[in-house]
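Morning, I've got a small favour to ask if you have a moment. You're getting the sequence in one-letter code plus the fold written as tokens. Thanks so much in advance, here it is:

===
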Amino acid sequence: MVAHAANALGDGSFHITSTLFFAQVVGLSAAQTGLCLTLAWTAGFLLTTPLGLLADRIGLRRSAVLWSLVIAAVLAAVAASGLRDPVPFTAVIALYAVAQSALAGTRQALVATSVAAERRVAVRARLHVAVNTGLGVGAGLGGLALLVGTPEAFRAVFVFDALTFLVAAVVIARLPRPAAPSAATAGPRTLRLDVLRDRRYVLAAALTAVLYLYMPMLTVALPLFIAQRTAAPGWSIALLFVLNTIGVLLVQVRAARTVRSMATAATALRRAGLALLAACAVMAAAALTDSPVVALSVLVVAAVLQVLGEVVLSAASWHVGFALADPERPGQWQGLWSSGQPLARAVGPVVLTALLLGWSGPGWLVLGAVFAGVGLLLALVVTRAEPVEAAPVALAA
């Protein structure tokens, strides 16, 4: 938990300042920044599962320490360098995204291997609360850098974030050494992505990635929608983020207690999709009034519905991701499950801004219908019978 909270503290300050750092210090245009982040998180999505396979081979703890150190090194290098060419800068940010994605999957696998099955969702919920707390405090620290507004202040944020990952590496390195891998884990010399044979798991992970679009919806599309399509005051964006953080802190652990089996997880997935549908419908209504007070009130209601959908979805997705995974190879299976978040980060900003800004009200309803439909479909997938496995997918030795 200390490692998660430390990284969230640094990441919160990074996320709140990185866009302006890219624009004012590195000199990237808005289009270049968007392309850079899309390419970076696409790389993270593509490599998370193979790197999970590597984590199974070299050890989860060692892998988590390695990726924490890589992230720290990248952040320090960006802060110290005067890199301004978009191509090498994109390569550096891609390394950051790959390391972040691999670290997320490895940590999920560590939870799967170090916590009893009946306690995993509850532990994951507490970790999520710790992360959200860290992100909130970190965002406040990043806000101080924005207030100063100098390149040195932005670089200080990157250095601070790097230090939090060094702290996390030390904490993870002190975890108890895991048991030696079994014969199934060690396997032959040929590296196989056996997780891709698990069709139900792959399909469930893909559908969950669609539901993860609520993240770029909240962080990218909603602020732009509020600024360009509603009469709500500009500071309402910050208010909604605060409400989201508080909502997760208050409700996430309670929501996790309601998911104890695959049947309750399926019920939670259906409810999460419907809650996100309701949130999207209310978001659309915020553009129908010229009153700042009314628009803000509508957005607050939508934010409450969104956070309810988020916490229920999180609890259900953790249970499914743990319950359907191969316990002998957690790196592969949790790596695939975690790859949905970088995928949502890669495609979400482009898709959602086009849908929600270009189509406004109807776009919100389409997005809400997608959330509800995918939630229903995912509930069916996770409760159906085991599928027949296909041929394995082999990588180079």
